[in-house]
Design brief:
The protein is built from no helices and 11 strands. It is mainly β. A hairpin with a 6-residue loop joins β4 and β5. The radius of gyration is 13 Å and the shape is globular.
């Protein structure tokens, strides 16, 4: 079991930046593929970004490419999402998730493919 806890969400204006964190205080994440998803009101949860176990391979949704950066610190057991140039359409609850390293490539990081989830952190971007 991997317990994940997101933090760093908040209310910001369009164009601002936020950095989300996802901590796993009770177990190492160093062997897990990690990802960020988001869910806007009335919409399905969608993929945002993912990192393989060592950060050597990262993936992004087209909607955030060039604005968001995923990174991880396996010593600190923490996953990050740096979000720049935020837009109102980025408003959502952001979730981090983990899966074992038994799959490689962006196709592994789907809602159904992740084994563990945090409870989410709300990001609201005003226009």
């Amino acid at each position: 079991q991997v317990q994940l806890a997101e933090s760093g969400g908040g209310l910001v204006q369009a164009g601002a930046s936020l950095r989300l964190s996802c901590a796993a205080p009770e177990r190492t994440i160093s062997t897990y593929g990690m990802a960020w998803f988001r869910q806007a009101p009335g919409k399905e949860r969608e993929f945002v970004s993912a990192s393989n176990w060592n950060g050597g391979a990262t993936y992004y949704a087209d909607s955030v490419k060039g604005r968001f950066t995923i990174s991880r610190d396996n010593v600190a057991n923490t996953l990050y999402l740096q979000m720049n140039s935020l837009k109102p359409e980025d408003t959502a609850v952001y979730y981090c998730a983990a899966r074992p390293p038994d799959c490689s490539g962006p196709g592994c990081y789907t809602v159904g493919g992740m084994d563990y989830w945090g409870k989410g952190t709300l990001v609201t971007v005003s226009s």
